[in-house]
Amino acid sequence: MIHEVDEGLRRLLAEAGLEASGVEVVFDAPTRDWAARRSAPTVCVFLYDIREDHTRRGSGAGEVYDADGFVVARRTPPRWFDLTYLVTAWASRPQDEHRLLSQVLACLVATDTLPQRLLGGTLAELGLLVDVDAGGTGLDAPAASDVWSALGGELKPSLGLRVKAPLAGISEVAAPPVTEGLVVRSVPQAGPDGTGSPRRLRYAELGEAGPEGFGGSRERPRVPARRKRGERQP
Questions:
Q1: Were 100 and a residue from 18, 85, 89, 137 both cysteine, which residue would form a disulfide, CB within 3.0 to 4.6 Å?
Q2: Per residue in 189-220, pLDDT tens?
Q3: Which of 36, 101, 63 is nearest to 177 (CA)?
């Protein structure tokens, strides 16, 4: 998921005209050695903090369908993560760096979410919104000065960028759909008389008094004949 967010951000900045003007967009750590090797205008989008948003954790499982509408898998709900980036501009002059950083800022604040056309992989498959917050306050992440100290570089103007993206849940493949009806086949068994045809035994044949309706005489009880109208009973 992280590399898919990176690619979405790169495409977004490319649409702003950075790559067309010869500006390279990279995701490297802006260390002192890295900065010394830079020779072309560059925008660095450095990911330095990843945290889960526990308030959006769900439960249960959803169904995944194929093109024919059959269930092919069951997937647990996605888990949401905040990806925090440090965005910096690198050029030969501070004025050029500020111009690049201003161009990046204008691009990022113009949208609250990454457009769906820029998403790929699992982000495109899930079809969920990927929120973008550029320069927002209250970023729950290490301060920029602490990041520069850890990188061993000199402090320079930077833009805080936070992206809230879903991590696809775990999928379990479902059994294939049933396409045929249930077929029941009987196996012939030998009857009690040794023949191959099974025969139901009556209780009378076993020498037992069966319940009413089984064994014994099967004669119907005699019902008195109906009298004709006007006939007296003897």
A1: 89
A2: 655 555 555 555 454 444 555 555 444 455 55
A3: 63
